[in-house]
Amino acid sequence: xxxxxxxxxxxxxxxxxxxxxxxxxxxxxxxxxxxxxxxxxxxxxxxxxxxxxxxxxxxxxxxxxxxxxxxxxxxxxxxxxxxxxxxxxxxxxxxxxxxxxxxxxxxxxxxxxxxxxxxxxxxxxxxxxxxxxxxxxxxxxxxxxxxxxxxxxxxxxxxxxxxxxxxxxxxxxxxxxxxxxxxxxxxxxxxxxxxxxxxxxxxxxxxxxxxxxxxxxxxxxxxxxxxxxxxxxxxxxxxxxxxxxxxxxxxxxxxxxxxxxxxxxxxxxxxxxxxxxxxxxxxxxxxxxxxxxxxxxxxxxxxxxxxxxxxxxxxxxxxxxxxxxxxxxxxxxxxxxxxxxxxxxxxxxxxxxxxxxxxxxxxxxxxxxxxxxxxxxxxxxxxxxxxxxxxxxxxxxxxxxxxxxxxxxxxxxxxxxxxxxxxxxxxxxxxxxxxxxxxxxxxxxxxxxxxxxxxxxxxxxxxxxxxxxxxxxxxxxxxxxxxxxxxxxxxxxxxxxxxxxxxxxxxxxxxxxxxxxxxxxxxxxxxxxxxxxxxxxxxxxxxxxxxxxxxxxxxxxxxxxxxxxxxxxxxxxxxxxxxxxxxxxxxxxxxxxxxxxxxxxxxxxxxxxxxxxxxxxxxxxxxxxxxxxxxxxxxxxxxxxxxxxxxxxxxxxxxxxxxxxxxxxxxxxxxxxxxxxxxxxxxxxxxxxxxxxxxxxxxxxxxxxxxxxxxxxxxxxxxxxxxxxxxxxxxxxxxxxxxxxxxxxxxxxxxxxxxxxxxxxxxxxxxxxxxxxxxxxxxxxxxxxxxxxxxxxxxxxxxxxxxxxxxxxxxxxxxxxxxxxxxxxxxxxxxxxxxxxxxxxxxxxxxxxxxxxxxxxxxxxxxxxxxxxxxxxxxxxxxxxxxxxxxxxxxxxxxxxxxxxxxxxxxxxxxxxxxxxxxxxxxxxxxxxxxxxxxxxxxxxxxxxxxxxxxxxxxxxxxxxxxxxxxxxxxxxxxxxxxxxxxxxxxxxxxxxxxxxxxxxxxxxxxxxxxxxxxxxxxxxxxxxxxxxxxxxxxxxxxxxxxxxxxxxxxxxxxxxxxxxxxxxxxxxxxxxxxxxxxxxxxxxxxxxxxxxxxxxxxxxxxxxxxxxxxxxxxxxxxxxxxxxxxxxxxxxxxxxxxxxxxxxxxxxxxxxxxxxxxxxxxxxxxxxxxxxxxxxxxxxxxxxxxxxxxxxxxxxxxxxxxxxxxxxxxxxxxxxxxxxxxxxxxxxxxxxxxxxxxxxxxxxxxxxxxxxxxxxxxxxxxxxxxxxxxxxxxxxxxxxxxxxxxxxxxxxxxxxxxxxxxxxxxxxxxxxxxxxxxxxxxxxxxxxxxxxxxxxxxxxxxxxxxxxxxxxxxxxxxxxxxxxxxxxxxxxxxxxxxxxxxxxxxxxxxxxxxxxxxxxxxxxxxxxxxxxxxxxxxxxxxxxxxxxxxxxxxxxxxxxxxxxxxxxxxxxxxxxxxxxxxxxxxx
Length: 1468
What we know:
Low-confidence stretches: 1-125, 733-740, 1147-1235, 1326-1330, 1365-1468
Mean pLDDT: 77
Strand content: 35-45%
Helix content: under 10%
């Protein structure tokens, strides 16, 4: 909490501070010198200086007569004009600006001048009460409402009614209520009671009663002897959930393809119910672009399809308070269609409507009706615009705003783009929006005019005002709204007009000014600001305190500090009037301030550089008119810790001993600790190392000891460190070392892991090392895995030297361990060993708490508390959970707590951006962890409430301006002030008929600053500018729009400066006007000089009129070349120049610029190249380069050619002799091209497939250039793909088979630089590469064999019949189908009509369907029956009989039908 010290020492009335303020400081009401009793506030006029004087005495404000100032008459009018500018602006603080009062009189006497100057007295700063409980409990305080119910209070009729009203004050306030503006006598109603020490009403219905009888408007009054505070007017309403009226709904008959609206018309509830559609079987209705629910609850069909009548439709209403769902009688659809066959395979057809014979229609709006409508929305609410259209195909909806873009940060699309939602609407969101509904038949639009109104919202909410006797202050109540709200003041709940008069109080509109306040001035003031859309009610009390100084910090603190450092001595204090604080050293001497000392406003004393003589006892003394208080701080100065002999870099051989020195000098009264780091990690001191106070010794140095060693010498106050590097040299190999010649490899894995010495928190792990493979093992890494939090994930546990094979492992409680070991040598790591057996440790309470605890707001009324969850080794027990505690930092209220199983918790209903104390404690089934540390978090930010004021603009030059503004008060930021931001846009150019972009731009000024510079403006233009404050939530309200004009500047370079040489005698120059004239062009300046190698000729200057864009120069020297520099001029001067050179003469060749050319090929004669030739020539041309002759135009290609090879599509554009863009080439063929003289894109190649296409192109842009591939399908749907230059080839996906596309490639930075537009077509979805089976030789042969076999069977049957033979098939005729009927397996239907049954086991046709009664060679056609089946070996069982003769055959065994199958049986 910031505590304010008094503004300086007492001084003589004749003391006058030097005028350090300028006129702006005076206008803002800020005094130039906060440490003087008498300030000079300068009001400057030509030749006039007016001092404003103010002072204090022990009795408050004394008034003294001043000498008559002769200059008062000359500045009287200026004073009156500056009256409003000098008014103070900060709510809740004492006024600092002079209030100018002056009667317009002729030649006033001297005492009038004195009275006028007395009105210029500054109003001192308001007192802030510290949060110390002892002070809070002692001070008298008027009531303050701390908790109340919402304005619109809707209650559940099944519960008791609770209307909250809590307040604080000293003494504790009493409460009473009004209902419908009349006194509510609680004692007369037995159902109504008031909570103890609270104003909360409880209405109990357990003994009966109707809640509706208590509906009305309630208001709470909290009162003590110092005033009365009011709650909001609370409108109590009982929730209602009426039943749905009974109705009989006839089936809805609609033609397929027609639009349809099913109306819901839910019963009115309080609050309104949530609407959703389901079937009568409680299945949700699938919604999409065609079928969707509107915001009014109706169900809209853009076009009805036959599939829509497969279900019914019921509207459901869910009521919030009763938690009930009421269902309306279901609608039944009957769809009339021209194609009653509902084939589900058509649902994914690309054109289902034409496939079903539904006529296509242009879009029309179902909601809203007509072409225009209007909508009103309140500021801060969500704006929802809706457009639902019918049509065939289903239309697409797009949203636009006239004259601007949709707010991307607030706008989102809902309900399949049919609804546009803009959150947190502000005044800038008003305007005309329109939705565009389109399909391939056409488009229509609907315009919605949006008006944004506003309920009152605070600009300056009145704050509690705490003053000392005799001080001045003010209450400010400023609100805005649309329409403009009115302000009404009340005191202690009564209108200010009817309150007793107070001579020390003055009301000036939205401000109440208090002068010379006394103890009797204490009261609670209410500000009620309202318009037709709502109201705001705020309480602010005026309390007058008379408190002698008190010290708030512990007495006789000891502070130790290192010599030559900077330190600060704190001395928090409180008193009313605000005390004056002074510092003294060793109880004597003058006030400490200046030089090496600096005293802050909160009373802290800073010593910039501590010296030995600064040691001693410092006394702070706080004084006001009621007394004084003092406190002492003892300062001890300690010597710094220094390493005076540092370790040095060393080079040692392996196996030797190394000593690193580290000798330290420190203050003997401080405890010294020396530690070592290796490679910036703590050094493990093993048995080969010895650490002493001043050195580190390493015995038997090995390669792993190489690295950096850091000595860290530290005390509790400071530390010093020094670093050295150790390099280890390996021993030279001796000829007798037989192993040196053997190949080295990674070690084998350790084996036979064993756990012994099982203890509660430790275990011994033993293993057998694997083979080191000729490289000694240097280290072992032990890893563990647990099966609760991260099963299967291995973690490093510890590391051990390569000389050990057994180690004691320290374990954590309640972990089911499993271990494995990895061996390491200089070659690498071994494979992990096989895991050991598992060992579970017993549980215990957590010994730590989660880390990274944070509290941040995600919304303006919440705070999200997050932390890093603890892992398995820190959980220590089952059911790990977290106890989250929080409370307001400044109120010191009781802790709120909740138990959370995850890693976050959101605290709701928090004030805007206030600090909270947060604690997160771990807990498991064995107990709680240690007491957690307290972390400070902040609740969510809200948008700033105020805009910068007094914005001043000063034009610096043609492209920059300087801004200056008044900073906003901190309490209006409602969050962390990120920056001040200026929004500016170019309104118009001062040049006639010059179109300019009015796109808004912004300039940011981070931090709390009052000025900044905006640059990169366009000269000679009219601009508009607005300022806002930005916090973490976003922008605040905009300031008043300022206009300014930039002066004329220099123009940009002329565009398209071209140099051509039609012959050896002349050179033609052409150019276009500059893109940005930046003023009125007065002409062009051309400078050119001849050069030949390194020799330069004399420069010649030509001036042209502003309308001239051509110039022809006669060459004086046919050998030399020319360099031209062209610039445009305005009155300011010449602008940026464009430079070009004339072409090289014919005797100069530039091989590097020559493109590859083709060998002689009759392209001009044929116009195309065959695919075979193109492939051959493409390979040839890659290595073929022919230098071109500069200055000679390329050969004109008269005809555009297109070559298609396989699935490749390319285009070649016809190029004129002076073409600037290189021509495209045919596929596989490179046409002769000259290097383009500016950035271009050419040779776009497309390789399409059925659903994708690969795109490549050529260009002469720099690396990293961004391109855009734009392609449009046959339905005029445009899509774009942004790509990088080096990302070729680019693949376009999601293409439609068999569709025609147009495509181009252009630069993302300049859309004007584009390739030619080409057209390509994707292949069809399915290509039947198989030949027709009817034309295959094997199929023809098979059919002939079957026909021959059938003919033989017919002949045999005929012979048998002619002999009068009988066939015994009677007993087999009625054999049913077996249980293994393949029809049952594949889910096909079993029809009862036996005549239409196919042969079981018959083959399907090529399209996968069984052809019934259509085969030209079916055995059924040759027989007279239809029943039978195949055996497993493929043979027939059963017989074929004629269905119609069944009854006859059953009665006559001798009359059996003749069939080829029977013939086969008889033969068998």
